[in-house]
Amino acid sequence: MKEPAQGSGFWSALRRGGVPSAIASVMGAPTAQQMAFIRSLTREQRRSEVLRTPLDRLETVVFDLETTGFSAQHGDEILSFGAIRVVGDMIMEKEQFYTLVNPRTVIPEHITELTGITREMTDQAPPLMNGLHDFMSFVGGRVLVAHASAHDKAFLNAALWKTSKVQLTHRVLDTMMLAKWLEPQQHQTYSLDELLAYQSIPIEGRHHALEDAKMTAKLWVAYVQEMLKRNVTNLADVYAHLSHA
Question: What does DSSP assign to residue 51?
Answer without folding.
Answer: G
